């Protein structure tokens, strides 16, 4: 939705690269182009927090393990192994 809204204006916009690359934005990606400006790049930091002796469901434990082991690769490439 956001790429199509941007296409209706003649203005520059700030949008996530992932939003621009989605399947729904295929036609938009032909008309919208990224202008790489390092100062506009938004870096995010993620943390995994849990209570030391608290209950953590098995699926949450597995997610925690994946994030600890592969988190950097997941968020840099957008893919899991």
UniProtKB/TrEMBL annotation:
Protein name: LysR substrate binding domain protein
Organism: Marinomonas spartinae
């Amino acid at each position: 939705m956001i790429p199509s809204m941007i296409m209706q204006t003649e203005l520059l916009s700030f949008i996530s690269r992932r939003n621009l690359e989605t399947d729904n934005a295929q036609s938009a990606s032909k008309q919208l182009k990224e202008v790489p400006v390092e100062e506009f790049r938004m870096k995010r930091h993620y943390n995994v927090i849990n209570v030391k002796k608290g209950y953590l469901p098995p699926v949450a434990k597995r997610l925690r393990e994946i994030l600890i082991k592969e988190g950097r690769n997941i968020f840099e490439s957008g893919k899991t192994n």
